[in-house]
Amino acid sequence: MKKTIIVGIFVISNLCSAFSAEVNLYTSRHYQSDTDLYKKFTDKTGIKVNVISSKYEVLEKRLLSEGKSSKADVVITADAAALGSATKKEIFQKIKSETLNSKIPAIYRSAYWYGISKRARLIYYNPENISPNIVKNLNYEDLANPMFKKRIVIRKSSNVYNQSLVSSLIENNGLSKTSKWAEGLVSNMARKPKGNDRDQILAVAAGEADLAVANSYYIALMLSGKKGPEQQAAAKKVQLIFPNQSNRGTHMNISGGGVAKYAPNKENAIKFLEFLLTKDAQEHIVNNSFEYPMIAGVQPNKLIAQFGTSFKQDSKTKMTSYYNNQKKALTLMKKAGW
Amino acid sequence: MFLFLKNINLWLISSICISLLVAIPIFVIFSGFFGETSNYLAVLSETFLLEYITNTFLLLIGVLSLTFIFGVGVAYFVSFYTFPGSQFFTWAIILSFAVPGYIYAYSLTAFFANYGTLFSILTFLFGEANYNSYIPRIDSLLGSIFSISFSLFVYVYLLTRALFVYQSQNMIDAGRNMGFSSYNILKKIILPSAKPGIVAGLSLVAMECISDFGTVEFFNVETLTTAIYDSWITFEDLNTANILSFYLLIFIFILFYLERVSRSRSRFNIPSKGFYKIEKTKLTGTKAFLIFLFCFLIFFTSFVFPLLQMIYWLIKFPGSFDLKSVFTLSLNSITVIAITCLALIVFSFVVNYGIRVTDNKYLKTLTNFSISGYAIPGVILSVTVLTFSSYVDQFLKDYFFISGFKTLIIGTIFGLTVAYFIRFFSLAVNGIKSGYEKLNHSLDDASYLMGYSKIGTFIKVHIPFLKNNLILICMLLSIDLIKELPITLILRPYNFETFATQAYNYASQDMLEYTAIPSLFLILFASLFIMISKRQILKGF
Amino acid sequence: MANYLEVNNVDFFAGESLVLKNISFSVPKKGDCICLLGPSGIGKTTILRGIAGLKEIPNGSIFLKDRILNDPNNFIEPEDRNISLSFQENALFPHFTVEQNIKFGAQRSLFCSKNKNGPLKFSTDQLLDFFFISDLKEKYPHEISAGQAQRVCVVRSITHNPDLLLLDEPFANLDQNLKEKVQINLKRILKETGMTSIIVTHDKYEAFYLADYCGVLYNQKMVQFDQPYNIHHKPNSKEVVDFFNRGVLIPAKVIGKNKLFNEELGEIQGEFSMDYPLNEQVELLIQPEDLIHDDESDLKLEVVDKKFRGTNFVYTLKTASNNLLPVFVHSHHEHLHQENEKFGIKKPIFIDHLVCF
Q1: Is the ipTM of this complex over 0.85?
Q2: Touch B-A: 3+ C-beta pairs under 8 A
Q3: Which chain B positions have a beta carbon within 8 Å of C115's beta carbon?
Q4: Which fold has domain C246-354?
Q5: Alpha helices for C31-175 (secondary structure H)
Q6: CATH fold of C5-241, please?
């Protein structure tokens, strides 16, 4: 009896979806403000957005298990390595979109996926505890310098942002040098990796460490007061630098997505991706999750823009390397004791 | 004659089907055991396998010690003494069961973080200053141990208390007669005769501790379970995951048998004749205060503290409160609980009634076998269900040209129910079984002889008798289901979140403060279930 | 069939093992009471369970009121037989009070086969009174003693007003005084309601009092099925004697009609229950009430044991050939004989019922 009901509901819901316009979104972006973004899309186009959000690895497993019967239309990630993984595993399909190709710079897209927003991985410091002169021209590679013994905080190695950073270091410096670098970094850690990016910034504000590595949008998030007055006050104590300005540039990462291979609502999927690159959507993104915009003509939010917007971005290191080196990066990090 | 034969087949067939279902995870792990592994296993063995095992081991030791102290301690005090609040603590202590380990982890982290709750409290009380340097840093392993201990010690408490309640005053008087102090009486008489309950409770705690995922993952403590998750997710090496799972399972089965053995022995310890109920000693003065403090601190830290932390966050970030989402989450959680409970109860009755009517020893072994579903960590179970669905889907496609089997399982409430079924079947079937064991067979005969048919006997005799058991099982299932995380995360349908998954999503994606609403409602619902069945819980273990 | 209940050539099994072979007996008419006697563990409960339908019989047949209950081709489920069984072990529903338990037996509900006999002529309260358990109505089974629980079971079975009432050692846990009172009441109830019953007991006094017929079970068979008087005075085999264990068999020779001769005791006269050919060597049963003490007699035997039984003494006398003979002597007798004394037996010995094998 119960089974009949379940099957009945299943059938009916399928019938319903056949008649209403919708797009099924698998996303690993994790910003509260995104819900409003989807609402904007629905208001504009009348297409309902069904969301399933989870960590990327879990989404991928699920997509691969579902195979041809997957109902996913759009897959969006918060990191470029995930895009590489999805491409390699044939989760995306090639689409043709003049809009997307014209709006997104070539390094931030591929035949299968399209970048939506940018973020930089920066080094934060507290001027009360460490002189701005020391950090002025810091490179990521300097983080292994013994002078910072037990003064650095960074989150755990399982975090994809760190893995992508290390991947890009491997790409630029080679495996053995990066290995040594990782070992140096580990001995410089003020504490065993704990907490998320914001916790690293707070640790620097509290004086538990001198340097922290975290993504760019977090400082803006804290300064906005959205995380409470304590974090806002703490964030005011902290400054940041853009690493590697004297060589290849600061490590950039993107949040991006593509159309799923067996998408049942392909047209809606393309519409959705194109929507994300409109001025409207981009402004929503930069002002709510404080990321850097992907399209020209939109300015980053002033809370992050105040630290400088014309810093050198590493456009040489290909985003595909983030995925290609990922396993090596993780192995290397784990071997170093990260 | 023929009718009887037909009956045997029906029971046996349905029980075999159920047992096959429950055996899926084991089957998948075994078949994966012989596959090839990537070099991850080699890397692992060189570097971190030892650390994972050490961590798992240290975690286990820590949790077992703390749960022993908390569980046996409180059980001892409320069973043998009256002191201010003893009545209250007897049932209120169970409320800590409403707080899963991972929510406790979020609360603990929030409280002791730089610029966290404690910082705010101190600022509020004493003005601005850099308290951060004075606020203790919670070491990850210690935090995990505390979180898991507080969420699990109730098992030890209930099982120990159940046996304490059956102690006869005679034994204690005999001890006093021999000149034992109350400490010696505790050590030499009370503890040894409650040993089966203590062992049973600790074994359950150990099983749950080893399978814990949410808490240790949050605290970044690498255990065997996280290694399994890692090898599957990050290294995409399902075979290594299977091998590690296999070893983990063996360890769990050993623990499980320890628990079973101690349970079966405990049955003989309950005296029937010459049994005098314990006269509780009344405590006053300093002793009463100290013991009250002990119980109060445990109650406060294990239940009130996480609750308050979540309320604090809610007040601080009122924007996170969304009535519509709360309603949806509630609906989802309740729906899932109702369907699963119904399925579990119905099939547990099928198996148990079959055992009763046919007295077939194969059926009996099948119920013992079902514990495997419970012992397997949720992560592993979900992965095996996914893998199995793919096998079957492929098989059906190749030989029968039927496709779409996968869609029936993956991402549907049906698939989710199946996985829950595998995991919790043992709880339901053994819960009903223990109820039936107290109803001896001649009662069925007596009922038949009074003209009641088999169905009549079931409705008029069995059901009223098992009523308390059923309430207890339903509530325990509901509590476990509402707290359940890994299976729900991996197998859930579109747009479908439960309180547990929503909290986890927020926590793992940098929005820790937003875990307040789902955590609060989870705790509230679970507490509600506990309150409904508190009488049965205290009696039924 | 003329008989109310017939058990024909049935082998009774407990589990896999055969306990009783080829049992046949019948209850002649409605309202009769049969008592089954036998040593512990012989299978009396198994017979009751077989008749009640709780276990199938592999061969033979059982008929009740002209209806086949069980034979190799038919089997009627216990709930359709209208037979009540009061179990030896406690079979009260633990979650019902005593009163609810009893009412369960009287219920005529949706799930219960209709009992064509209608309600019983005695009320529940009357029955409780008869068995001295009136004050237990609101109690739960775990709150009452074993003897009380047994009686509640009996009341529950009687309340059902079945065609056949089966009681398995219903008063085993009662002290002698209470037992006798309860037996009187039970007999009255059975007679006034006309309820047919089969009662299992190992107390022969109970059996002799209640039964119209007794069946003695021994050595896996029904050795004698007869009226109580005949069971006592005319046991049909040595096995019955063994079971009751009250007498001793001594060798004797038939020397005439109703006359026997034994070397040590001399001539023995009486009434044979059967005819025996002249000069046949037989074994004669001597029961304690058969030999009469006579201080004047010259037949003297040595006393080896003396038991005081309240009303009488039982002396054990030893003959020259080392037979041990029991003798009742009323305890008002003046000379109290001690061990190793000589004890006189009246000559010639006269025994009313001469039982020989």
Answers
A1: no
A2: yes
A3: 451
A4: OB fold (Dihydrolipoamide Acetyltransferase, E2P) (2.40.50)
A5: 44-52, 98-106, 124-130, 146-159
A6: Rossmann fold (3.40.50)
